[in-house]
Design goal:
The structure holds 3 protein chains of 3 kinds. Chain A has 8 helices and no strands. By secondary structure, chain A is mostly helical. Helices cover 39% and strands 17% of the residues of chain B. Chain B has 2 domains: 70 residues, no CATH class; 138 residues, Alpha-Beta Plaits (2-Layer Sandwich). The radius of gyration of chain B is 31 Å and the shape is elongated. Chain C is α+β, with helices and mostly antiparallel strands. Chain C has one domain: Alpha-Beta Plaits (2-Layer Sandwich). Chain C contains 3 helices and 4 strands. In chain C, helix 3 links the parallel strand 3 and strand 4. Chain C is elongated, with a radius of gyration of 14 Å. Classes of the chains: A mainly alpha, B alpha+beta, C alpha+beta. Chains in contact: A-B, A-C, B-C. At the A-B interface, helix 1, helix 2, helix 3, helix 5 and helix 6 of A face helix 1, helix 3, helix 4, helix 5 and strand 3 of B. Strand 2 of chain B pairs parallel with strand 4 of chain C, so a sheet runs across the interface.
């Protein structure tokens, strides 16, 4: 497959969307090899998306796998109105949202967390410090609601416009803005110790 | 789940974070942050300590987010082979409801699913220079079976009789469409005989896209020509299986 | 035909004969199980008591000694599908006539349906 993996990280669609469209038509008609090619083309981007959304590579793999299987079943109805990559992005996002919703809450959500003090205050190297900050961020993200988390990740890590997030998640743009704001508010508090 | 926000009005405070928060200077925090993302200069924010503090908090978060992205594995480092293998294991187990075509003589109980026949035809067409096959549907030619006595056949299987193929192709701009259609038809008739043993009554070739030299669709002309159907159907002789 | 031969054993016999046929890549995996129930992720494998190896289905006819056999195969590209289905049928009939299929010299009357589900 003429897959080009060296593209900018935020491009969900493969570099040759037209090739995708052709493969999707074939796969919709039961061509398993065409679907396999689509899986190879889109799995890396989708795995990264799911890992960002779920925070766990293992769970991300399961979510992406199930998303592809569900896509295979739904492909006969896929009319090519959207690009295959966009369509998969949506399926994976909603799959992850459901996974997040089914999780037991691990953090007490009643309070904004106390600012966490950096763990490496005694002459840390910059790299170690940055690493610890990232770890704190991951921990803080667990405190977000599923909806806040999904909106925030799509906005801040995937760099998506509010409009497309709204479309993906199926809520209004205003609702997306509200969730991103509350997630930011929560996370800035959680990361206050790193200021 | 209790924390599910959906269905509740968005004004509800969540986790102690109010929907709106006004800074001591009178600005809405949400607005200050939104504006920071737009690079629009704001004289107030530039001189306001409250806004500056709010922005510093945001920048700190953004700094850690940027770092988190750097820490992520490169795209190519994801192990997709194992994932693709597991996906395809499930996919190959799935039964796609589809049509099944009869192979061989009337007294034979031999069949081929439409998807397998279509895949053979696409592969046969793809070898033509400048041509890529897309949709390919195969069914028993209705005109060939209209007069035939209905024969008993398993559910989901098409009646016996020569097949009719409808195939959509992408064709390079520089190619003569009529010649391409002839080539496509010839390839399919040949593959049907030599690779499947399926009799063909007719092949409809539809040019669905014209591609420029880069292999991308010719956007300017696509609209007009999308529906152009080269329905040069040939009634082929009744060639029996070898 | 042979009361001692279970459908499962017959199916295994048929499967071996089919897989030995030139041009057959593999039997459609899991199909016999799939026909019984819709399948989700991870389900459908190793169903106990299924009367057939993957891709082979054997059913005794009611009130007569014969069996109905359905074979679902994926072929190797480069082999003519119709020819392979004929070879598969011959192989199955031959296997059922062999000494392991039942009483010596007694063939199992069988209706064999061969379906090509894919080409690789």
């Amino acid at each position: 497959m003429p897959g080009d993996r060296g593209r900018a990280p935020e491009e969900t669609d493969a570099p040759l969307p037209h090739e995708d469209a052709l493969l999707a038509v074939r796969a919709a008609e039961g061509d398993e090899a065409a679907f396999e090619a689509l899986v190879h083309r889109h799995a890396p981007v989708l795995l990264r998306l799911a890992t960002r959304l779920l925070g766990s590579p293992t769970e991300a793999e399961d979510a992406v796998q199930e998303a592809f299987v569900s896509a295979w079943r739904k492909l006969p109805e896929f009319r090519g109105d959207a690009r295959f990559g966009t369509w998969m992005h949506r399926i994976v996002t909603n799959r992850c949202l459901n996974v997040l919703r089914s999780r037991q809450p691990v953090t007490a959500l009643d309070n904004v967390p106390e600012p966490q003090a950096p763990e490496h205050q005694v002459s840390p190297t910059r790299a170690a410090e940055a690493h610890a900050a990232v770890r704190d961020l991951s921990r803080a993200i667990e405190g977000l609601s599923p909806e806040q988390r999904v909106c925030w990740v799509l906005r801040e890590l995937d760099g998506e416009p509010y409009e497309s997030i709204a479309e993906t998640v199926g809520i209004s743009q205003e609702a997306v803005r509200g969730r991103v704001f509350r997630a930011r508010r929560y996370l800035t508090e959680a990361m206050a110790g790193w200021r | 789940m209790a924390m599910n926000e959906d269905g509740t009005p968005d004004g509800t405070a969540f986790g102690g974070v109010p929907e709106e928060e006004t800074l001591p200077c009178g600005r809405e925090l949400a607005q200050v942050w939104e504006q920071a993302g737009t690079d629009e200069p704001d004289p107030h924010t530039a001189g306001c300590p409250h806004c500056a503090e709010a922005l510093r908090a945001l920048r700190t978060l953004e700094g850690v987010v940027a770092r988190a992205r750097v820490d992520e594995p490169e795209e190519r480092q994801w192990d997709t082979a194992a994932l693709a293998g597991r996906v395809m294991d499930v996919v190959r187990l799935e039964l796609r409801p589809g049509r099944t075509l009869a192979l061989g003589e009337d007294d034979e109980d031999a069949w081929i699913v439409e998807a397998a026949a279509a895949r053979t035809f696409r592969a046969a067409v793809d070898v033509l220079p400048g041509v890529r096959a897309g949709s390919c549907r195969v069914e028993t030619d209705p005109m060939s079976t209209a007069t035939a006595a209905p024969s008993a056949r398993p559910p989901g299987r098409l009646p016996r009789g020569p097949a009719r193929v409808r195939i959509e192709v992408q064709v390079g701009l520089s190619w003569n469409l009529r010649l391409v259609a002839d080539d496509v038809r010839a390839r399919i008739v040949e593959a049907a005989d030599s690779e499947l043993g399926l009799r063909i009554a007719a092949v409809d070739v539809v040019v669905a896209d014209l591609l420029d030299e880069t292999g991308r669709p010719d956007e300017a002309d696509e609209e007009d020509r999308l529906d152009e159907e080269l329905d040069e159907e040939d009634r082929l002789g009744e060639g029996g299986p070898r | 035909m042979t009361e001692q031969q279970t459908p499962r054993a017959l199916a295994d016999l048929v499967a071996a004969a089919v897989l030995a046929t030139r041009g057959v890549a593999f039997l459609r995996p899991g199909l016999a199980e799939l026909l019984r129930s819709s399948v989700g992720l991870g389900a459908g494998r190793g169903t106990a008591g299924a009367a057939g190896a993957s891709g082979v289905r054997v059913q005794r006819r009611k009130g007569s000694p014969g069996v109905d056999i359905e074979v679902y195969v994926v072929l190797c590209r480069g082999h003519r599908a119709l020819d392979v289905t004929r070879a598969v049928r011959s192989a199955v009939v031959e296997a059922l006539a062999g000494p392991t299929a039942g009483e010596p010299g007694e063939a199992t009357p069988a209706q064999v349906r061969v379906t090509v589900t894919g080409v690789v």
